Amino acid sequence: MNRSSADIVHEYGPFPGADAVHGVTFDGAHVWVALGDRLDAIDPATGKALRSIDVAAHAGTAFDGRHLFQLAEDRIQKIDPQDGRVLATIPAPGGGGDSGLAWAEGTLWVGQYRERRIHQIDPDTGAILRTIESKRFVTGVTWVDGELWHGTWENDESDLRRIDPRTGEVLERLEMPPGAGVSGLESDGGERFFCGGGGSGKLRTVRRPARSGKAGGKGAPAANATGD
Predict the structure, then answer these.
(1) Closest CA to 137 of 99, 189, 172
(2) How far apart are CA 194 and CA 158, in angstroms?
Protein backbone atom coordinates (compact mmCIF):
# COMPACT_ATOMS: atom_id res chain seq x y z
CA MET A 1 0.00 0.00 0.00
CA ASN A 2 1.25 3.47 -0.89
CA ARG A 3 1.07 5.91 2.01
CA SER A 4 1.88 9.63 1.93
CA SER A 5 0.85 12.98 3.36
CA ALA A 6 -1.98 14.79 1.60
CA ASP A 7 -0.79 17.81 -0.37
CA ILE A 8 -3.34 20.53 0.45
CA VAL A 9 -2.97 23.15 -2.26
CA HIS A 10 -5.88 25.47 -1.44
CA GLU A 11 -8.47 26.28 1.22
CA TYR A 12 -11.79 28.09 0.77
CA GLY A 13 -14.23 29.35 3.37
CA PRO A 14 -15.67 29.36 5.92
CA PHE A 15 -18.83 30.26 4.02
CA PRO A 16 -21.23 32.93 5.33
CA GLY A 17 -24.19 31.63 7.31
CA ALA A 18 -22.96 28.03 7.40
CA ASP A 19 -21.32 26.23 10.32
CA ALA A 20 -20.15 23.12 8.46
CA VAL A 21 -19.55 21.57 5.03
CA HIS A 22 -21.45 18.28 4.70
CA GLY A 23 -20.96 17.24 1.08
CA VAL A 24 -19.14 18.18 -2.12
CA THR A 25 -19.53 17.66 -5.86
CA PHE A 26 -18.19 19.20 -9.08
CA ASP A 27 -20.19 19.95 -12.23
CA GLY A 28 -17.22 20.68 -14.48
CA ALA A 29 -17.22 24.39 -13.70
CA HIS A 30 -18.41 24.88 -10.11
CA VAL A 31 -17.89 23.07 -6.82
CA TRP A 32 -21.22 22.49 -5.07
CA VAL A 33 -21.04 22.36 -1.27
CA ALA A 34 -23.80 21.08 1.01
CA LEU A 35 -24.21 23.52 3.89
CA GLY A 36 -27.08 22.04 5.90
CA ASP A 37 -30.04 24.01 4.57
CA ARG A 38 -28.65 24.98 1.17
CA LEU A 39 -26.35 24.07 -1.69
CA ASP A 40 -23.86 26.71 -2.84
CA ALA A 41 -22.11 26.74 -6.21
CA ILE A 42 -18.52 27.85 -5.57
CA ASP A 43 -16.12 29.28 -8.13
CA PRO A 44 -12.98 27.12 -7.65
CA ALA A 45 -10.78 29.97 -8.87
CA THR A 46 -11.92 32.46 -6.24
CA GLY A 47 -13.84 30.50 -3.58
CA LYS A 48 -16.83 32.82 -3.99
CA ALA A 49 -20.40 31.53 -3.99
CA LEU A 50 -22.02 32.29 -7.35
CA ARG A 51 -25.50 31.00 -6.54
CA SER A 52 -27.41 29.08 -3.91
CA ILE A 53 -30.25 26.54 -3.80
CA ASP A 54 -32.43 26.34 -0.70
CA VAL A 55 -32.72 22.60 -0.05
CA ALA A 56 -31.97 20.18 2.78
CA ALA A 57 -28.31 19.26 2.37
CA HIS A 58 -27.18 17.20 5.35
CA ALA A 59 -24.52 14.92 3.86
CA GLY A 60 -23.09 13.77 0.50
CA THR A 61 -23.68 15.42 -2.87
CA ALA A 62 -23.27 14.11 -6.44
CA PHE A 63 -23.70 15.27 -10.05
CA ASP A 64 -24.60 13.02 -13.00
CA GLY A 65 -23.88 15.53 -15.74
CA ARG A 66 -27.38 16.97 -15.60
CA HIS A 67 -28.83 16.69 -12.09
CA LEU A 68 -27.60 17.10 -8.55
CA PHE A 69 -28.22 14.35 -5.99
CA GLN A 70 -28.27 15.32 -2.34
CA LEU A 71 -28.48 13.26 0.85
CA ALA A 72 -31.00 14.65 3.32
CA GLU A 73 -31.49 12.55 6.45
CA ASP A 74 -32.99 9.22 5.26
CA ARG A 75 -33.46 10.09 1.59
CA ILE A 76 -31.61 11.11 -1.56
CA GLN A 77 -33.05 14.04 -3.50
CA LYS A 78 -32.68 14.48 -7.26
CA ILE A 79 -32.43 18.23 -7.94
CA ASP A 80 -32.61 20.38 -11.06
CA PRO A 81 -29.61 22.70 -10.64
CA GLN A 82 -31.18 25.33 -12.89
CA ASP A 83 -34.22 26.09 -10.77
CA GLY A 84 -33.55 24.12 -7.55
CA ARG A 85 -36.66 21.90 -7.87
CA VAL A 86 -36.58 18.49 -6.20
CA LEU A 87 -37.60 16.19 -9.04
CA ALA A 88 -37.63 12.88 -7.18
CA THR A 89 -36.53 11.19 -3.96
CA ILE A 90 -35.36 7.66 -3.18
CA PRO A 91 -34.58 6.05 0.18
CA ALA A 92 -30.97 6.23 1.36
CA PRO A 93 -29.54 2.78 2.12
CA GLY A 94 -28.40 3.72 5.63
CA GLY A 95 -31.75 5.18 6.66
CA GLY A 96 -30.11 8.36 7.90
CA GLY A 97 -26.60 7.06 8.65
CA ASP A 98 -25.28 7.91 5.20
CA SER A 99 -22.38 10.15 4.28
CA GLY A 100 -20.55 10.34 0.93
CA LEU A 101 -22.28 10.30 -2.44
CA ALA A 102 -20.89 9.85 -5.95
CA TRP A 103 -22.10 9.15 -9.49
CA ALA A 104 -20.38 6.67 -11.82
CA GLU A 105 -21.49 4.52 -14.76
CA GLY A 106 -25.18 5.29 -14.34
CA THR A 107 -25.41 4.48 -10.63
CA LEU A 108 -25.01 6.20 -7.27
CA TRP A 109 -22.36 5.21 -4.74
CA VAL A 110 -23.28 5.95 -1.12
CA GLY A 111 -21.10 5.84 1.96
CA GLN A 112 -22.71 4.40 5.08
CA TYR A 113 -20.74 6.24 7.74
CA ARG A 114 -20.54 4.25 10.96
CA GLU A 115 -21.20 0.92 9.24
CA ARG A 116 -17.96 1.45 7.26
CA ARG A 117 -19.57 0.52 3.96
CA ILE A 118 -20.02 1.85 0.44
CA HIS A 119 -23.17 0.86 -1.43
CA GLN A 120 -23.73 1.02 -5.17
CA ILE A 121 -27.43 1.75 -5.67
CA ASP A 122 -30.00 2.15 -8.42
CA PRO A 123 -30.61 5.91 -8.82
CA ASP A 124 -34.29 5.39 -9.68
CA THR A 125 -35.31 3.02 -6.89
CA GLY A 126 -32.58 3.10 -4.25
CA ALA A 127 -32.12 -0.67 -4.53
CA ILE A 128 -28.68 -1.81 -3.36
CA LEU A 129 -26.71 -3.40 -6.21
CA ARG A 130 -23.44 -4.05 -4.40
CA THR A 131 -21.79 -3.38 -1.04
CA ILE A 132 -18.09 -2.80 -0.35
CA GLU A 133 -16.77 -3.11 3.19
CA SER A 134 -14.34 -0.45 4.42
CA LYS A 135 -12.02 -0.41 7.43
CA ARG A 136 -12.84 3.13 8.55
CA PHE A 137 -15.83 5.47 8.85
CA VAL A 138 -16.74 6.56 5.31
CA THR A 139 -17.16 10.32 4.91
CA GLY A 140 -16.98 10.86 1.16
CA VAL A 141 -16.86 8.87 -2.08
CA THR A 142 -15.59 9.60 -5.59
CA TRP A 143 -14.52 7.81 -8.77
CA VAL A 144 -11.76 9.06 -11.09
CA ASP A 145 -9.95 7.24 -13.93
CA GLY A 146 -11.47 3.95 -12.84
CA GLU A 147 -10.25 4.43 -9.26
CA LEU A 148 -12.57 4.38 -6.26
CA TRP A 149 -11.54 6.76 -3.46
CA HIS A 150 -13.23 7.50 -0.18
CA GLY A 151 -12.66 9.87 2.72
CA THR A 152 -12.39 8.79 6.34
CA TRP A 153 -12.73 10.57 9.67
CA GLU A 154 -12.33 8.56 12.85
CA ASN A 155 -10.66 9.25 16.22
CA ASP A 156 -9.75 12.77 15.04
CA GLU A 157 -7.80 11.33 12.10
CA SER A 158 -8.72 11.67 8.43
CA ASP A 159 -7.33 10.42 5.17
CA LEU A 160 -8.24 9.77 1.53
CA ARG A 161 -8.13 6.11 0.53
CA ARG A 162 -7.98 4.45 -2.87
CA ILE A 163 -9.53 1.01 -2.55
CA ASP A 164 -10.07 -2.03 -4.71
CA PRO A 165 -13.75 -1.78 -5.70
CA ARG A 166 -14.14 -5.57 -5.66
CA THR A 167 -12.48 -6.43 -2.36
CA GLY A 168 -12.30 -3.17 -0.41
CA GLU A 169 -8.53 -3.61 -0.01
CA VAL A 170 -6.78 -0.30 0.69
CA LEU A 171 -4.32 0.44 -2.13
CA GLU A 172 -3.25 3.96 -1.24
CA ARG A 173 -3.64 6.48 1.57
CA LEU A 174 -3.25 10.25 1.61
CA GLU A 175 -3.10 11.29 5.26
CA MET A 176 -4.64 14.64 6.17
CA PRO A 177 -2.88 16.82 8.76
CA PRO A 178 -4.25 16.99 12.33
CA GLY A 179 -7.46 19.01 12.49
CA ALA A 180 -8.21 18.69 8.78
CA GLY A 181 -11.17 16.32 8.77
CA VAL A 182 -12.86 15.13 5.58
CA SER A 183 -16.66 15.44 5.30
CA GLY A 184 -17.26 14.97 1.60
CA LEU A 185 -14.98 14.08 -1.30
CA GLU A 186 -15.06 14.78 -5.03
CA SER A 187 -12.59 14.65 -7.92
CA ASP A 188 -12.45 17.21 -10.69
CA GLY A 189 -11.61 14.39 -13.12
CA GLY A 190 -7.96 15.43 -13.12
CA GLU A 191 -5.36 16.36 -10.52
CA ARG A 192 -7.58 17.75 -7.76
CA PHE A 193 -9.72 16.33 -4.98
CA PHE A 194 -12.20 18.67 -3.29
CA CYS A 195 -12.65 17.82 0.40
CA GLY A 196 -15.32 19.14 2.75
CA GLY A 197 -13.86 20.25 6.08
CA GLY A 198 -16.74 19.46 8.43
CA GLY A 199 -17.18 21.87 11.32
CA SER A 200 -14.25 24.01 10.19
CA GLY A 201 -16.62 25.28 7.49
CA LYS A 202 -13.81 25.01 4.95
CA LEU A 203 -13.39 23.39 1.57
CA ARG A 204 -9.91 22.07 0.81
CA THR A 205 -8.24 21.10 -2.45
CA VAL A 206 -5.87 18.14 -2.26
CA ARG A 207 -3.49 17.22 -5.07
CA ARG A 208 -4.21 13.81 -6.55
CA PRO A 209 -1.11 11.64 -6.96
CA ALA A 210 0.16 11.51 -10.55
CA ARG A 211 -0.47 8.37 -12.58
CA SER A 212 1.65 7.50 -15.60
CA GLY A 213 -0.30 6.63 -18.73
CA LYS A 214 -3.64 7.76 -17.34
CA ALA A 215 -6.00 10.06 -19.17
CA GLY A 216 -8.24 12.37 -17.18
CA GLY A 217 -11.89 11.58 -16.64
CA LYS A 218 -14.33 10.50 -13.98
CA GLY A 219 -16.25 7.30 -13.68
CA ALA A 220 -16.01 3.62 -12.90
CA PRO A 221 -14.43 1.26 -15.45
CA ALA A 222 -16.68 -0.80 -17.68
CA ALA A 223 -15.58 -3.97 -15.88
CA ASN A 224 -17.08 -2.67 -12.65
CA ALA A 225 -20.28 -1.55 -14.30
CA THR A 226 -20.94 -4.90 -15.95
CA GLY A 227 -19.86 -7.00 -13.00
CA ASP A 228 -22.73 -5.99 -10.73
Answers:
(1) 99
(2) 14
Within 27-169, strands assigned E span 31-34, 36-42, 49-57, 61-63, 68-72, 75-79, 86-91, 98-104, 107-112, 117-121, 128-133, 138-144, 147-154, 157-163
Domain count, the chain: 1
For residue 62, report the phi and psi dihedrals to the nearest 5 degrees. -145, 165
Residue 5's identity, in one-letter code, is S
Residues 79-116 have pLDDT tens digits of 999 999 999 999 999 888 888 999 998 999 999 988 99
Domain of 93, CATH number, reads 2.120.10.30
pLDDT tens string 170-207: 999 999 999 999 999 999 999 999 999 999 999 999 99
Look up the domain containing 64 and give its range.
Answer: 2-226
Strand pairing category for 170-175 and 31-34: unpaired
Is the pTM for the entire model greater than 0.85? Answer: yes
